[in-house]
Model the fold of this input.
Amino acid sequence: MIPFRRVAWLFAVPIGSLVLACSAGGDGSGGTDPLAGSDTSGGSGDAGGYLDGTSSDAGFNIDGGLDIGGGGPDIGADAFFADDPPPGVCGDSGVVPKTPGGTPECPDDKNREGCPCLKEGDTATCWPGFRKNRNRGVCHDGTTTCKKVKETTLGWGPCEGYQLPTGATGKEACVCFSGGQWTLDNLSPCFISGAGGAVKSAVSTLPNYDASGKAAPACPTDGKKPSVAWTHTSVKVDCSGHFKLCYTLKAGDSTKPLATDCVVTTQCAEGDYVTPNVVQKWGDLPAWESTDAACAAKFASSGGYGEMSVVGTSVECDHVEKVFNRVQYCPLYCNDAKDPRSTSDPVCKSCGAGGGGSF
Done:
C-alpha cells in the first residue's frame, strides 16, 4: 500500500521577527570628531587649523601663501588614528589603512571647516564624525564649499547635510554590520503516514520551481528523501562577512518556544557575503529525511514551526549569533482540498511555501 503523504505550508507572514544589531564597539562610537573644535575663528588649536598664520605646527602657512605640508614634520598614522581610527579589519588580512594627507588637525580625508582649500567655489565631501562610522548605517557625508576666510586666505566652509549616529545599535549606530535578510523559496516539509494512518517519517519536499522561480512544493512520489535540494536561498546584508544561516524544524508553538521542543531537522548554508546591500545567491538547503517518528507525528498533529538562526562575523569583526525568526506552520488540513476547513478557515488563506527573516 502506498503511504499517505501530506505537505505542510507556512503562514505567509513570519511571526516574532527580531532585528538585533551588533555594535562595533570602541570609544565614542556615537560621538563627533574628537579633533574638530567648535570655534572656527582660526585660533591656535581649534577647528580653524591655525588659519591666522601665527603657527606652523599645522604644516601650512595661509597668510604667506598656501604651503600645505611642504616643510612640516613626517606625520605617521598614529597621529591621525590614535583617537579616531578607521574602520577595523577582521583577522590578519594584511590590509593597512591609508594614512590621510595634511595634518591631524586638518586631515585631507575629512575637509574640516576652516581647514585650507585651493580654489574658491570648489565643493567636496566632508565628515565631522568618527572615521569608523562614516557612510555606514544612517550616517553619510555632507558637502562643504571652499570660501574666503580672510582677504587672502581660503578655507572650507561649514559641512552641510551630513548625518551622525542617532542611536546605540543597528543602522542608527552607524556600524558596518547592522542587519541582514535571509530569504528561502521553499520551506514545506512532507509527512509520510503508514497503512494505519500514523505518521512514520518526514522528508523535504520537491520544490518544483516554475519559470518565474516560484516554488510549488510536492511530496516525492516514493515518500523518500528527494535527490534535489530542498530550497534555494538568498541573502542581503549591509556589510561583507562570513555567515552561517540555519533553518530548524521543530514541533511546538512559535509564540511559546520551549527548550524541550523536539527537532525534525536542521539544515544550514554557509559562505562569504561579498558586496554589501546587494542580494546574493546563497547556498541551497539540502534535501533531508527524518526518521524520528514521534517528533514528526507531534508536528503533524499538534503543529510546528521553523526557527532561523545565524552565526557570523563581518569584515570589521562585528559578531552576530542568535535565533532571529520563528515562523509557524499552517495546520495540515489547509493543504487538503477534501477538508472544508481548507477553504473556510482564514488561517489557510495566509499560507505559503517560502519565508524569510531579518537578522
In short: DSSP finds three helices and 17 strands in the chain. Confidence is low (pLDDT under 50) at residues 12-31, 34-72. The radius of gyration is 29 Å. The CA atoms of residues 238 and 277 lie 5 Å apart.
